[in-house]
Amino acid sequence: MNDRRRDALEHEHRPEVIERRLRAPSRLRHLPDAILGGIDGCVTTFAVVSGAFGAGFSSTVALVLGVANLLADGFSMAVSNYEAIQAQREHVAGVRRSEHHHIDVVPEGEREEIRQIFLRKGFTGETLERVVETICSDREVWVETMVAEEHGLQTVALSPLRSALATFIAFMVVGAMPLVPYAMPWLDPTRQFLTSLAVAGLMFFLIGMGKSLVYHQPLLTSGLRTLLIGGAAAGLAFLTGHLARALFGLGP
């Protein structure tokens, strides 16, 4: 590790910097929602485009189908994400109420749960008893510890509305990219499809690179993996459209 990186790392681990970082909300909190929306949006619209091209439909039909799917699926996915996060928040709130009730009814039993949780983490003897006493002296800390440690639930709540908006915006923006060539009437259908293919491939690769920020993966590896996943979905849609045309006489 070079000196500059070491100095930067040491600066990030100063007490005041650590305290400020832990207090501040994560700027990347809604990035997974955006990544999910972007991937699904690009897969959805390019799959429609691929299927339409494979079936031999006109560019106009591909564009209409792509826009319709973009709007409907984007809204559906945003609503689904909203409901999922809202349900998670309600579940955590229910667990908190339950833990408050348990502390009221069987405080010694709840104290023993704290003791055993930290015993499994390697605390023993006087140190363990001080940890138990410190946590149980603050009811809210006690409950939050039980929620996180006993039930394995995330105690930092996400905003359902913000998560839904992040998903919807990413879905619409990224999902619209493969449709842009179909709004260029001066291109013939084959060139429209190939341009859409190149744009979709670029979107998949860039989204994969964005994923590496969240999951701390190598940029190139993450980009190529997402590109392969998106390419497989598009290839399946193209093959389905081509087979439907051959088997059922679909298309123009």
Automatic annotation (TrEMBL):
Principal location class: membrane
Matches recorded under Pfam families: VIT1
Membrane association type: Multi-pass membrane protein
A GO term from the CC aspect: endomembrane system
One of the GO BP terms on file: intracellular manganese ion homeostasis
Gene Ontology MF term list: manganese ion transmembrane transporter activity
Keyword line: Membrane, Transmembrane, Transmembrane helix
InterPro entries: Ccc1_fam
Membrane-spanning ranges: 164-187, 193-214, 226-248
Subcellular location: Endomembrane system
Keyword DNA damage included in the entry's annotation: no
Top-level taxon of the source organism: Bacteria
Record-given protein name: GMP synthase
